[in-house]
Design a protein that fits this description.
Blueprint: E1 4-7, H1 11-22, E2 27-31, E3 46-47, H2 56-79, E4 93-97, H3 101-113, E5 118-121, H4 123-129, E6 139-143, E7 147-148, H5 151-164, E8 168-171, E9 175-179, E10 182-185, E11 188-191, E12 194-197, H6 203-209, E13 217-226, E14 236-239, H7 241-247, E15 254-261, E16 267-273, H8 284-297, E17 306-316, E18 323-326, E19 333-337, H9 343-359, H10 375-378
Parallel strand pairs: 1-2, 1-12, 2-8, 4-14, 12-19
Antiparallel strand pairs: 3-7, 4-6, 5-6, 9-10, 10-11, 13-16, 13-17, 14-15, 15-16, 18-19
Helix pairs in contact: 1-5, 1-9, 2-5, 2-9
């Protein structure tokens, strides 16, 4: 019998399960689909501090970006390189502005005060870092802490550690409802002491079924993938509009330029954000806008064919902060959700924080801003 059942085998559920199992907690992970097949599979693998304003999320991001390389090193030692490969790349990030240099430089100064390594550089230095980047820029900021990993590999690595420690990962098993002493699943009742809601965009629906509704809404995002052009883009590069899109509460479509390479040499082009319920369909008109904006930053991309497009839903909380912790209304119910497009980067610290709270250890970061019973999350909406 497990001590804890984690519902959701994406990157957040996997990180929570790994952190709990590392402390000796018996864990079972359930997912109605296959592991890492939802939001995690639709992400870029961003591990960023550059896009976050000073505040609780940035604090969590700094803790996570420090934890990820150490955690992956520990798992490689425990599991071996074949089971613990996540394509970790501490590549650094480059944020550029084509106009209004003052706004980006002011934002970077605030981040610097908050502990981020943010260096304002000249346009010439930016082009030296990225030779294919347009020189038609107003300013640029280099973020050496930004990194990238392969999200599906990262999640499956975390889940492999859970299995190695005696835990279970059960794909194709739906959680139906909480009951006293455990959780009802499509395969029967599972006894446990606690249940973690790590259902991503579906966390709101799960919370309703559990009798403790929280406001977590789906927000759609899309990406383009080009044919391989090795070493064409060396860092994560995005325009300053991306920061505003991340922080926006607007439900309407927003696009901003994000360009980066993978280890396979393909180039990922993003990004879009749009609140359209659970509609995860791909819209060609949005992809066209994203491609046009990317070409403005990297003109050479006009000659590179696009191989495919993909997208998915991200779990959005109205105040743009994750929900991490115990629900005060239902004994044994915990939540780890609401990370929107930052879940990959925030996962390592989220798992550690949830495990700290569950075990009564001093938390790695202040949990108060992420508590379940805060107004923006408890103010239940019906437009899911």
């Amino acid at each position: 019998m497990p001590d804890v059942v984690v519902v959701g085998a994406g990157i957040i559920g996997a990180a929570c399960a790994e952190a709990l199992s590392a402390a000796g907690v018996r864990v079972t992970v359930l997912d109605r689909g296959s592991a890492a097949s939802g939001t995690t599979a639709a992400g870029e693998g961003n591990v960023l501090v550059s896009d976050k304003q000073p505040g609780p999320e940035l604090t969590l991001a700094l803790a996570s970006i420090a934890r990820w390389p150490a955690l992956l090193a520990e798992l490689r030692e425990e599991l071996g390189p074949d089971l613990a490969e996540a394509e970790w790349e501490p590549k650094g990030g480059l944020v550029v502005a084509t106009e209004n240099a003052e706004a980006l430089e002011k934002f970077a100064a605030l981040q610097l005060e908050a502990g981020v390594q943010a260096d304002v550089i000249t346009v010439a230095d930016a082009v030296a870092l990225e030779p294919h980047l347009t020189p038609d820029l107003a300013t640029a900021v280099y973020y050496s802490q930004d990194a990238q990993l392969q999200p599906v590999l990262a999640a499956t690595t975390l889940l492999a550690a859970v299995r190695r420690r005696g835990g279970e990962v059960r794909p194709g098993v739906s959680a139906v409802k909480l009951r006293s002493g455990g959780i009802e699943t499509c395969e029967g009742f599972l006894h446990c002491d606690a249940v973690v809601n790590a259902c991503g965009p579906w966390a709101g629906a799960f919370s309703e079924a559990a009798g403790a509704p929280i406001t977590v809404l789906p927000r759609r995002g899309m990406l383009l993938v080009t044919a391989p052009v090795p070493f064409a883009v060396r860092h994560k590069v995005y325009d300053a509009d991306y920061v505003g899109a991340v922080a926006s509460a607007d439900a309407d479509l927003q696009t901003s330029t994000v360009v980066e390479s993978t280890q396979a040499g393909t180039v990922l082009i993003g990004s879009s954000r749009e609140r359209v319920g659970f509609d995860d369909s791909i819209r060609v008109a949005v992809l066209r806008v994203m491609a046009q904006k990317a070409i403005r930053l990297f003109p050479m991309l006009a000659q590179v064919p696009v191989m495919r497009a993909y997208g998915g839903l991200r779990p959005y909380a109205p105040d743009h902060l994750p929900v991490i912790g115990q629900d005060p209304r239902v004994p044994g119910l915990w939540h780890a959700t609401g990370h929107e497009g930052a879940g990959i980067g925030l996962a390592a610290a989220t798992g550690q924080l949830l495990a700290d709270l569950y075990l009564g250890r001093p938390p790695a970061v202040d949990p108060f801003p992420f508590r379940v019973d805060r107004p923006a999350v408890m103010a239940h909406e019906t437009d899911r």
